[in-house]
Amino acid sequence: GCEIDDCVAIVEHILKNCDHLVFSGLMTIGAVKNSLRCQEDPTFNNPDFEVLQELKEKVCAAHSLGKDEVGLSMGMTADMENAIRNGSTNIRVGTAIFGSREDSVYASES
């Protein structure tokens, strides 16, 4: 992970100096409270997803990348619909497939 303010420079470093890496997108694991609120209120727009979408636009503009060249990995079982509405191209859905873990942060919040 990185600080938001460092992201554009890190992508630049990858693109210019890391011949064996392929930059394919950005990822966030948002705040648990926002994910849980998405479950409670389907009209809530997760601010973590909005930030990543804005960051994608900055990265694309800074490096002349097409929006379809930069994926967004954001959202999990609890907030996947919201993530999809916000442009996610990859979602982690382990809980939907395997069920909750007892030691999960989500389990302790319920």
Brief synopsis:
The chain is mainly α. It has six helices and three strands.
What's the overall average pLDDT, rounded? 89
The residue ranges in which pLDDT falls below 50 over 5 or more consecutive positions are: none
Q: Tell me the distance between the termini.
A: 27 Å
Q: What is the helix/strand order? A: HEHHEHEHH
The biggest sheet, with number of strands, parallel, antiparallel or mixed sense and barrel status, is:
3 strands, parallel
Strand runs, count: 3
How much beta, percentage-wise?
5-15%
Determine the structural class based on helices, strands and strand pairing.
mainly alpha
The largest sheet has its strands arranged as 1-2-3
Rg over alpha carbons: 15 Å
Shape: elongated
The helical percent reads 40-55%
Query: Treating each run of at least 4 consecutive H or I residues as one helix, how many helices?
Result: 6
What would your notes on this structure say?
The chain is mostly helical and 110 residues long. 48% of the residues lie in helices and 11% in strands. It is built from 6 helices and 3 strands. The chain has helices at residues 7-17, 32-40, 47-63, 80-85, 94-98, 105-109; strands at 25-27, 71-76, 90-92. Strands 1-2-3 form a 3-stranded parallel sheet. The longest helix has 17 residues, at 47-63.
